[in-house]
């Protein structure tokens, strides 16, 4: 059998994942590549029944497998197996460049997450923020090592375990000389201090509520004054040393500030005002002035990373964000019929894998449909026509 998945992942790699996950522990009628092929390439727009899967497996292998037997194969090991395949595909779709800049670091880890609404039947496994009355939410946590070209972690978690909780949980994984590039949701002062104390490095955006103090002047950064000065001097980038927090918790690092286009800052303010209004609050003038900039912080020495390097490196994290956005746009998970939890998770992971295999097609179509500014990742359109699923790679 020449399985479709073998066209994108080597058979020995699939076998390695199957044994590592426990999917294959002994001789079995169900080959790991056939299991993937059935879930990934048969359908993306309707849900396969157990009988559908069994029929397809017979066509591939000429070996019958009962519905009961297949039902039992949807377990924690099969979920872990599909996660390994998904992580492998994500790793192949991330653009890695400028390897020389990674030299001072043991690992360069990009971390991001994405939340998905699920059918009501999965409330117990994936509760939403509002308890029993809210929609179920799944949170996917993913971390990729840019330097070594390998994934570090992929987890399906409850949305109630937010990114800051994940940062706390994974603090023990931070090793000396790591560089961690994380989304704003993960960033706390405890996280930054943990990175520094581990003799590792961080590159993040600055939390809006934080008030950085310019180390040279001892004054809090005045965003309005800074914008006027940069406009007058036609500066495209500003950098200074800052101090975050106070006393024994004080942390010194670099601040890199880049002005954004007016339409971007206006959109930021519009979204923030909408959110603030829903909570009975108003935006401060300081917050509005901050919206004029993209603001980054890092403890990497300037001799290693110039300001332009910092900006380019952070944009790499948007690659994962772009993948997540495509998943949300192309999948209608609310239409899924309730099935065994592990079977649903395998089906979901299979849909993600299918999108990644067709990644180049979606990127080309998206580029033709929409043009966005260089400051934001493109969104995959939700109205894309779906090609023939089994034969499109």
UniProtKB/TrEMBL annotation:
Residues 105-354 form the Transposase IS4-like domain. The keyword DNA-binding applies. The keyword DNA-binding applies. Keywords: DNA recombination, DNA-binding, Transposition. GO terms for molecular function: DNA binding; transposase activity. GO terms for biological process: DNA transposition. InterPro entries: RNaseH-like_sf (IPR012337), Transpos_IS4 (IPR047952), Transposase_11 (IPR002559). It comes from the Bacteria. Belongs to the transposase 11 family. This is DDE family transposase. It comes from Mucilaginibacter oryzae. The lineage of its organism: Bacteria, Pseudomonadati, Bacteroidota, Sphingobacteriia, Sphingobacteriales.
């Amino acid at each position: 059998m020449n399985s479709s998945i073998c066209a994108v992942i080597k058979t020995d790699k699939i076998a390695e994942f199957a044994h590592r996950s426990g999917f294959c522990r002994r001789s079995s009628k169900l080959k790991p590549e056939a299991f993937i092929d059935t879930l990934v390439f048969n359908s993306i727009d309707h849900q396969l029944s157990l009988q559908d899967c069994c029929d397809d497996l017979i066509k591939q292998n000429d070996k019958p497998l009962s519905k009961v037997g297949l039902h039992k194969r949807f377990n924690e090991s099969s979920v872990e197996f599909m996660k390994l395949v998904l992580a492998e595909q994500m790793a192949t779709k991330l653009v890695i460049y400028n390897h020389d800049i990674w030299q001072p670091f043991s690992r360069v880890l990009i971390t991001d997450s994405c939340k998905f609404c699920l059918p009501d039947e999965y409330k117990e496994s994936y509760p939403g923020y509002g308890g029993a009355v809210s929609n179920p939410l799944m949170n996917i946590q993913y971390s990729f090592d840019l330097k070594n070209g390998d994934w570090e972690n992929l987890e399906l978690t409850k949305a109630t375990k937010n990114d800051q909780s994940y940062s706390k949980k994974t603090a023990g994984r931070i090793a000396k000389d790591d560089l961690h590039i994380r989304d704003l949701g993960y960033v706390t002062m405890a996280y930054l201090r943990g990175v520094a104390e581990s003799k590792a490095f961080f590159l993040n955006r600055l939390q809006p509520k934080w008030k950085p103090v310019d180390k040279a002047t001892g004054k809090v950064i005045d965003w309005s004054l800074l914008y006027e000065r940069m406009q007058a001097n036609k500066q495209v980038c500003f950098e200074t040393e800052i101090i975050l927090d106070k006393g024994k918790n004080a942390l010194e690092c670099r601040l890199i500030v880049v002005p954004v286009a007016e339409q971007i800052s206006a959109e930021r303010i519009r979204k923030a005002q909408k959110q603030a209004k829903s909570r009975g609050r108003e935006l401060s003038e300081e917050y509005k002035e901050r919206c004029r900039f993209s603001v980054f912080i890092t403890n990497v020495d300037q001799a290693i990373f110039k300001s332009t390097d910092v900006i380019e490196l952070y944009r790499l994290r948007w690659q994962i964000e772009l993948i997540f956005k495509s998943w949300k746009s192309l999948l209608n998970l609310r239409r899924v019929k309730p099935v065994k939890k592990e079977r649903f998770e395998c089906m979901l992971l299979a849909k993600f894998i299918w999108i990644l295999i067709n990644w180049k097609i979606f990127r080309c179509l998206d580029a033709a449909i929409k043009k966005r500014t260089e400051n934001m990742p493109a969104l995959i359109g939700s109205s894309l026509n779906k090609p023939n699923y089994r034969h499109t790679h």
